[in-house]
Specification:
By secondary structure, the protein is an all-alpha fold. It is 46% helix and 0% strand.
């Protein structure tokens, strides 16, 4: 058995490499930021000011087409007699309830509620042909169903003395509809808003009582009741 004294001594050489930091250290500053710049001798570059904003001058005057021009259609060479058919169907409007005296059953707000829907249905059908994209559909229909446009069309009926005394009474009845302050009413004004509501009341009244008279009134306003006839004739050729 060998003892520790009998084991030859081992010499271990350890190489130690040292490096010296030749860069000058900064003095301790407790108020200095946590991440100082890498090169303290370089001064920070001044920030370049942002480029001046360009101002585009847009003309404030905008010439929008009138409601009559918007509803106007090109003349059709072949004249088709109007009848009760629309795209091969006998009726295009939903069958209304048979009400002889709508004023005794519904209030003015209820008639304006259904009249608003029927009026917009006429507008959408009027611009259905020729086919357009959805954005163009919405732009044209929105321009016609606005209360300012409804007021202008109502003035056309009154100036031409086209309405009967009963229909004028319905307009006066629908003009007094009480409604809360809406964004549309604030934009157009109470007078224009109330006249537009009276036209919607008349449309709802005629829809429930006399659809044929409703067709005549809407045709007088400029809405085409046979807007698909030209399209059907072109398809037949």
């Amino acid at each position: 058995m060998q003892t520790l004294s009998s084991v030859p001594s081992l010499r271990v050489r350890v190489a130690v490499r040292a490096s010296w930091d030749t860069q000058q250290r900064l003095s301790y500053n407790p108020n200095a930021p946590r991440k100082p710049p890498k090169n303290p001798n370089t001064t920070p570059k001044p920030k370049t000011p942002p480029p001046p904003a360009l101002t585009l001058t847009v003309p404030t005057t905008r010439t929008d087409p009138s409601i009559s021009d918007l509803l106007k259609r090109s003349t059709v060479e072949e004249i088709v007699e109007p009848d009760e058919f629309y795209m091969g169907c006998e009726r295009w409007l939903p069958s209304p309830a048979k009400v002889q005296k709508p004023r005794s059953v519904f209030n003015a707000a209820s008639l304006a509620y259904i009249g608003d829907c029927i009026y917009e249905l006429y507008a959408r059908r009027h611009f259905l042909f020729p086919p357009l994209n959805i954005e163009e559909y919405n732009d044209r229909v929105t321009a016609v169903v606005r209360c300012e446009a409804q007021d202008a069309l109502l003035q056309k009926l009154l100036s031409d003395n086209y309405l009967s005394e009963e229909e004028r009474n319905v307009l006066r009845w629908g003009k007094n509809i009480g409604s809360a302050k809406t964004r549309t009413k604030k934009r157009a004004g109470a007078a224009v808003y109330n006249r537009a509501s009276s036209l919607e009341t008349l449309v709802g009244y005629l829809y429930l009582k006399n659809v044929k008279r409703l067709e005549e009134v809407m045709l007088k306003l400029g809405f085409s009741t046979d807007s698909s006839m030209q399209f059907i004739l072109e398809e037949a050729k």
